[in-house]
Automatic annotation (TrEMBL):
It comes from the Eukaryota. GO terms for molecular function: protein-N-terminal amino-acid acetyltransferase activity. It holds the Pfam family Acetyltransf_1. The keyword Transferase applies. The lineage of its organism: Eukaryota, Haptista, Haptophyta, Pavlovophyceae, Pavlovales. The keyword Transferase applies. It comes from Diacronema lutheri. PANTHER family: N-ALPHA-ACETYLTRANSFERASE 30. One of its GO terms (cellular component) is NatC complex. Gene3D superfamilies: 3.40.630.30. This is N-acetyltransferase domain-containing protein. Belongs to the acetyltransferase family. MAK3 subfamily. Keywords: Acyltransferase, Transferase.
Amino acid sequence: MAADCDAALEYRMYRDEGDLPGIMALISADLSEPYSIFTYRYFIHQWPELSFVVLDAGIIIGTIVCKMDEHKTGPMRGYVAMLAVHNSQRKRGIGKWLVRRATQAMRGAGCDEVVLETEVTNAGAIALYESLGFVRDKRLLRYYLNGNDAFRLKIWFDPLPPHQQPPEGEAHAML
Ligand SMILES: CC(C)(COP(=O)(O)OP(=O)(O)OC[C@H]1O[C@@H](n2cnc3c(N)ncnc32)[C@H](O)[C@@H]1OP(=O)(O)O)[C@@H](O)C(=O)NCCC(=O)NCCS
């Protein structure tokens, strides 16, 4: 367990469909975009090793859902699709652990960069991502259904040295 983890909580990768109701409840309580169960399954079934949860007494209180694919300009691009921490559990480092862990997993799986969008008014999320090295790459006008603009935030990686490359198919071993 990393030094910045709370020993009372469980930190782990997505396990199976049993995690889905808790993930959906958290995300739908906080994000402005409505997602169907098919959207969750699109991400989680294809990239289960890129989704993580934090639990308190078996209840999911934080989650991040990501994917990766080759961008049209060439690089392998990771993407943070969803991130939420229960509002009673914020400001104790859970969001930062989730973003750091998912970013490590995407890097370990071969991503050259990671991107995401966040509402320009979401000061908490922007501060969190910027504290981890993400920068503002673009402003996307009226990106959200509610009419708000988004910032595209982005982080670029240097290539991993050979001794840190995970064994093939074991990106999740990069703890
Ligand atoms: C954004 C969110 C995930 C942050 O989760 P969290 O567990 O509270 O974040 P952390 O405690 O790990 O905070 C890490 C850093 O982020 C920043 N931060 C987090 N919340 C903040 C806030 N409300 N205001 C300002 N900075 C904030 C701080 O820099 C903090 O570092 P610090 O501990 O040194 O002060 C959480 O507020 C949330 O779920 N919001 C609703 C959903 C959402 O907006 N998701 C992001 C969509 S892109």
